[in-house]
Amino acid sequence: MEEEKSVQTDDLAVTVGKNIMRLRRMANMTQLDLAEKLNYSDKSISKWEQGNGMPDVRILVRLADLFNVSLDDLVRDHSEKQIVPKKTKLIRRIIIIACSVGLCWLVATVLYVLLGIFVPVIQKDLWLAFLYAVPFSSIVVLVFSSIWNYRATRVVSLSVLIWTLLACVYLTAFVCGYRENMWLIFLIGVPLQVLTLFFFVWWKGAKISKE
Question: What's the whole-model pTM score?
Fold first, then answer.
């Protein structure tokens, strides 16, 4: 049993050592550079990277902050993939969302152009295509923020979806001549907004506190 624990500890030390070395090289640091930032000797850094020992939890946390990665990134085996710093990961995700939202607006532009060419009789109302691009963009952001667990972004995107979708219905009805009391449709958004805040802010917060 003790031998098994020793093997597991050795394996963990080797994994941590490889990750420290990889992250240090990605940051263009020498062992001496890293040692100076941690107030350790370069011999200690070399020892860790070779898997002959492992820094304590306090140093692991400092390393994670220094390299802008999670503590999990430091202790997991990443032999099949490269460790991506949090900042780089965030930038990539923002680019993905921006490109996806841009695609929604591209579709709206194509519809505006094609309908303007082939159905010129409705050209004066084609601006609605860009209005509908807003709730569709909100759906895209909502999907990605749910996948990546960005709670604040989910609340904002869902709120934007609720009110812009109601605005689309209102303005579409207005263009079609249905104008009497159409403002009442915005009352639907009030309970929806309350439910959104209740679920994502209060209920989720209560669940986390219980855990």
Answer: 0.65
